[in-house]
Hints:
Layout: H1 2-20, E1 48-56, E2 60-64, E3 69-74, E4 81-82, E5 87-91, H2 94-136, H3 142-181, E6 184-186, E7 191-196, E8 203-204, E9 209-214, E10 220-226, E11 238-242, E12 252-259, E13 269-276, E14 288-294
Antiparallel strand pairs: 1-10, 1-14, 2-9, 3-5, 3-8, 4-7, 5-6, 7-9, 10-13, 11-12, 11-14, 12-13
Helix pairs in contact: 2-3
Amino acid sequence: MKKEVQLGLFALVLACSGCTSQPQPVVAAAAPRAEVSAPAADKPNENVFTASGPIVVENQLDVAALREGVIVEILVQPGDRVHAGQLLAKLDDRQISADVEAAAAKVRSIEANLENWKAETKVLQVDLERAQKLWEANVIPKEDLEHAKYKEEADEYEVQRESESLNNARDVLKSLELEKEKTRITAPFDGLIARRYVRVGQKVSIGDRLLWVTAMGPLEVKFTLPEQFLSKVHEGEQVAVTSADIPSQVQYMAKITQVSPVIDPSSGTIEVLGQVVGSAPQLKPGMMVTIRIDNAR
């Protein structure tokens, strides 16, 4: 009985101690902190300067009408390749052709007339020689000798007059032939027909645009730089050329051929011209490109 009482007291003490003791907080171990490295910001390269400009060619122009007329034939279309002197279009040349024929006939007529005067002059020269001998022999009076002399001189003046008339007629014929040539529109250089402005049957005036002809090379790039580059870029140096219209990994080089010696006061820039080195099939005249200048300080 005594042993049971002791066991009950011991159980009561344990229960009381469980009621008064505070629960220990459970602290979870913190997960190791992951180090996140932010990507380093791209720092601009202070030794590289970029500019933009167009691809150009020296030979590029609008072929204009040199005389008034009606277009009767167009022999090329945009995209056609042409060679210097190749016939591109024709104007109506019937009137000018008739004028040329008339002028040529007049030249032939004056040439024949001149030969006639020359032959007559030779006859008069023979008559003068004979009159001189007859006068020396006292067969004819001096007046007859002088008459033969003056007649021969008059014919010599006629020969000179006809010679000048012939020169004038030939100049007129040449002028008309030049006018006739203006009815034939030819290519000024080797290149490509980029645009056509007229159609068959259209009447054009002097100076009207007919066709746009452009060469395909050599390709050049024209761009401007701030005035501080005036003493930093020089002829013969090379710059990189890229375009948004071609793959980014494709890069061409251009050699500087001209640096403007003066500064544009309105923009504070200088104009630079470079020629593309080697073959650049993806670059076309008129394309905008980016120019990168390395080692710019």
